[in-house]
Structure formats: structure tokens, C-alpha cells
């Protein structure tokens, strides 16, 4: 079990992961802070009734929400790409482990056959 984890850790493109991490963390923090701020603003405006002239305010809020949605989708796409890389790497390790196990079984059968002669 330890060998397969070590092999998996060696195969992961850590340079790419480390280079992408600060941007992902910064994006997640920005998204989180905007979400908190938007929630507090929504709670503050919850009891107010909009006048007919407040459509510009609503349009600005919709535009802000669209920008946040785009940034959230970019962050999710980046995380999904990294997840796909990790899954592909672990799949390769799984296949190599199975091949190694098959070789070990064949070697054991061959050694048993030589020993029984």
C-alpha cells in the first residue's frame, strides 16, 4: 500500500499544482469574501421596498452577480482540471500496480515450479 502511494506522489505534476495553487486560493478567498459581503448586503436590504426608479440599482446588482458567477465557474473549472490530473495519475498508478502484481504472481508460480522439480 505504501509503495503505491509513493508512486502516486512521484507521478503527480507537483510543479503545475504548486504554480496554480496561489491563484486558486486567491480566487477562492475573493469569492468567499464577496459571497459574505453580498449576503450581508442582501440581509441589510431585505426589508426595503424598491421604488420604481431603482431599476438601475437592480441592474448593477445583476451585473455584479453575473461577474461573481463567472469567477466562480472559472475557479470550479480550475479545480476540476486539477482533479482530473490527479485522477489520471492515480489511474496510471493503479494500472502499474496491477501489472506489477501480475508479474509477482508469475514470478512466484515460476519459483514454485522450479522448487518443486
From TrEMBL:
<keyword id="KW-0175">Coiled coil</keyword>
<protein>
    <recommendedName>
        <fullName>Transmembrane protein</fullName>
    </recommendedName>
</protein>
<keyword id="KW-1133">Transmembrane helix</keyword>
<feature type="coiled-coil region">
    <location>
        <begin position="62"/>
        <end position="96"/>
    </location>
</feature>
<keyword id="KW-0812">Transmembrane</keyword>
<feature type="transmembrane region" description="Helical">
    <location>
        <begin position="99"/>
        <end position="116"/>
    </location>
</feature>
<keyword id="KW-0472">Membrane</keyword>
